[in-house]
């Protein structure tokens, strides 16, 4: 199947716009305030990622966050100091350090989820359940396909390049 250049450009622009929105500080600040929690905005995405994907190795966590290992390690230390996460030896490889959410951290992410539902839920109120499900399905498919085709996989072919 041939993909039109304009289709790819429009998809790329939409993804850039979504990424720009998600990276803006104000939505995170609003979410944190709505949740009624005290958390440094820089630690917010890290805590949520640990809760969603953890326990997770520090190196893998850094890669998924697009940050370097030392930055994430310092941020994890701040989460540990706050009692929100804990570092421990890896489950499958004791040499690997992984980070896991604590009960206090899980309570905080639950408050963030409830706040997200209150703040973002109304935007989807007019969407049908089918449209919401289809959006999730297509985004998951896109991520899976892009992940499978990463240039880091060793193939330099045009087909395997990431956006």
Structure explained in plain terms:
The chain is mainly α and 163 residues long. It has one domain (5-126): Winged helix-like DNA-binding domain superfamily/Winged helix DNA-binding domain (Arc Repressor Mutant, subunit A, Orthogonal Bundle). Helix content is 63%, strand content 7%. The chain has helices at residues 5-23, 25-35, 44-53, 58-65, 69-81, 103-124, 129-148; strands spanning 56-57, 85-89, 97-101. It has a 3-stranded antiparallel β-sheet. Strand 2 (85-89) and strand 3 form a beta hairpin. Helix 2 (25-35) packs across helix 6 (103-124) and helix 4 crosses helix 5 (69-81). The longest helix has 22 residues, at 103-124. The protein is globular, with a radius of gyration of 18 Å. Residues 155-163 have low confidence and may be disordered.
Reconstruct the topology from this structure.
Blueprint: H1 5-23, H2 25-35, H3 44-53, E1 56-57, H4 58-65, H5 69-81, E2 85-89, E3 97-101, H6 103-124, H7 129-148
Antiparallel strand pairs: 1-3, 2-3
CATH secondary-structure class: Mainly Alpha
What percent strand? 5-15%
Strand order of the largest sheet: 1-3-2
What's the CATH architecture?
Orthogonal Bundle
How confident is the prediction overall: mean pLDDT? 88
Tally of discrete structural domains:
1
How many alpha or pi helices? Answer: 7
Report the structural category.
Answer: mainly alpha
Q: How would a textbook summarize the main sheet?
A: 3 strands, antiparallel
Percent helix: 55-70%
Outline: globular
The end-to-end span amounts to: 18 Å
The CATH topology assignment is Arc Repressor Mutant, subunit A
Write out the CATH superfamily name.
Answer: Winged helix-like DNA-binding domain superfamily/Winged helix DNA-binding domain
pLDDT < 50 runs, ≥5 residues: 155-163
Which series of helices and strands comes N to C? HHHEHHEEHH
The beta-strand count equals: 3
Radius of gyration: 18 Å
